[in-house]
UniProtKB/TrEMBL annotation:
Its EC number is 2.7.13.3. This is Sensor-like histidine kinase SenX3. It is found in: Cell membrane. It is an enzyme of class 2 (transferase). It comes from the Bacteria. It comes from Rubneribacter badeniensis. InterPro entries: BphY/WalK/GraS-like, HATPase_C_sf, HATPase_dom, His_kinase_dom, HisK_dim/P_dom, HisK_dim/P_sf, Sig_transdc_His_kin-like_C.
């Protein structure tokens, strides 16, 4: 398990509560939205139905219109005015008047199947069910009888319901219960849908994380996301091919350069040591040798970065005695005799004389050498370079500091940003910078591969320092 994977899992633990809180808030918001939409729809439908059926077109309106339009003359004849006729015609309705004896005293457009006389029992049953001979009927009490207005079959629906008082009293509770059950079902459906979505998207996110960390990704998805999985797998394969091609190219170039470079360094050494050569020639040979060593260091850095990037060379971990390693690095630089402008010092704290780390000795030595080379490279007029070793808690601190020109706050911030970008880049070689080159990027890669970290500090005209923090064995 990589450190980034462990970090993501640790971060996911506290975020779990936030996730469920967010889901609950989203669910509550969704439920409130549904209630508001339902209320709006109910209001809209009620308003529409009221305008269409319960205003001027309501049965009660028709009954009142017929009641007002029906009158009896002095000769005993019944008369329905034009308003009453119009009210019946517009609705396809009929009307009749039942007198106290139950006989039909007056009628208008009454269907044949409607009786012409009614007993008290017939009137009671018709009023209870609001229909006569399957015709919806509405009743209006008059001083001279009972007015009945009937409408076409199927025009209105009437239901007479009787409930215990306790049922009506508990009705709000029942409504709340049904509402709660509906919310529960909705939440379960919402949670299942979210879980299915996350389970489908989760492998894609993991694959993208793997690609961002330079690891291969292969997805075998089914369903609608299968094509996305195939595209990610194909992309991973293309990236792997390009990485392999880049690594092979670096390895091939390094191999091709090694032999001619060794010959150049050999001849330069011979000329520089030839007492018969002129001083100018010997000085030029020294310059050639110094620049050749820089090329050699760069090739070595490229090879090391490539191997770290693509896991081509696993770390050869062993117990490394840091004081001995640092002495070896410093002595090698001093004995090279190439750089009198950059005197090198080694300072070991008393509590660090026995400091041991579990590391690849060659790589850690390379990191320290690069930090020293960085100090020499950016102080061409010379500076003093000091290598110190201290122990703080469970960490060994290797510090390479110079008293040279230093760098501005803006340049330091840019360098830190470049290192941060390099940590997420697929290739350290692709993080090569103009000012500090591959050196510090490689130092950071090597130290982090050992579970450590680096920090850099600098001020203008007050030098530059690189501190390597490594866990003690």
């Amino acid at each position: 398990m990589t450190r980034s994977t462990r970090a993501r899992r640790q971060t996911s633990t506290p975020s779990l509560a936030r996730f469920f809180t967010k889901q609950m808030l989203m669910f509550v918001a969704l439920a409130l939205l549904i209630v508001m939409v339902d209320f709006f729809l109910y209001t809209l439908i009620a308003y529409r139905e009221s305008n269409e059926h319960y205003n001027d077109d309501s049965p009660a309106t028709a009954v009142r219109a017929v009641d007002a339009a029906l009158s009896r003359g002095e000769d005993g004849a019944w008369t329905l005015s034009e308003d009453g006729e119009q009210a019946l015609d517009e609705r396809g309705a009929w009307a009749l008047l039942v007198d106290e004896s139950g006989a039909v005293a007056w009628s208008q457009r009454v269907p044949d199947e409607v009786p012409r006389s009614f007993s008290p029992n017939d009137v009671a049953m018709a009023a209870h069910y609001a229909e006569i001979a399957d015709y919806p009927a509405f009743f209006w009490d008059r001083d001279d009888g009972l007015l009945v207005v009937g409408f076409p079959k199927g025009e209105y629906w009437h239901e007479s319901l009787t409930y215990p008082a306790s049922t009506i009293a508990n009705l709000p509770l029942y409504v709340l219960l049904v509402f709660a059950v509906d919310l529960g079902i909705l939440f379960v459906l919402y949670a299942v849908a979210r879980r299915r979505t996350q389970s489908a998207v989760g492998p894609i996110v993991d694959a993208l994380d793997a690609l961002s960390e330079g690891r291969a990704a292969e997805l075998n998805l089914k369903g609608d996301l299968r094509e996305i999985g195939q595209r990610i797998t194909e992309t991973s394969g293309i990236i792997e091919q390009k990485d392999a091609a880049r690594a092979n190219w670096i390895r091939g170039v390094s191999h091709d350069i090694r032999t001619p470079l060794s010959m150049i360094l050999g001849y330069a050494d011979a000329i520089a040591a030839d007492e018969g050569a002129s001083d100018d020639v010997r000085a030029d040979a020294q310059v050639i040798r110094a620049q050749g060593l820089k090329i050699k260091d760069l090739v070595t850095d490229l090879n090391t970065a490539s191997k770290l990037d693509y896991d081509m060379q696993p770390l050869d971990l062993e117990r490394v005695h840091l004081p001995r390693l640092l002495r070896s690095v410093v002595v090698e630089h001093v004995n090279s005799g190439l750089d009198e402008l950059h005197p090198l010092e080694l300072d070991l704290d008393e509590n660090a004389l026995d400091a041991v780390v579990l590391a690849d000795e060659r790589l850690i030595g390379r990191a320290v050498e690069n930090a020293i080379a960085n100090a020499r490279l950016h102080n061409e007029r010379g500076c003093r370079v000091q290598v110190t070793l201290a122990v703080r808690g469970e960490r060994a601190l290797v510090r390479v500091a110079d008293d040279g020109a230093g760098t501005s706050a803006e340049e330091l911030a840019e360098l830190k940003a470049r290192l941060a970008r390099a940590r997420t880049a697929r290739s350290a070689a692709g993080s090569y910078g103009e000012e500090h080159g591959l050196g510090l990027v490689l130092v950071d890669r090597i130290v982090r591969a050992h579970g450590g970290s680096i920090s850099i500090e600098s001020e203008p005209e007050r030098g530059f320092s690189v501190e390597l923090s490594l866990p003690l064995a």
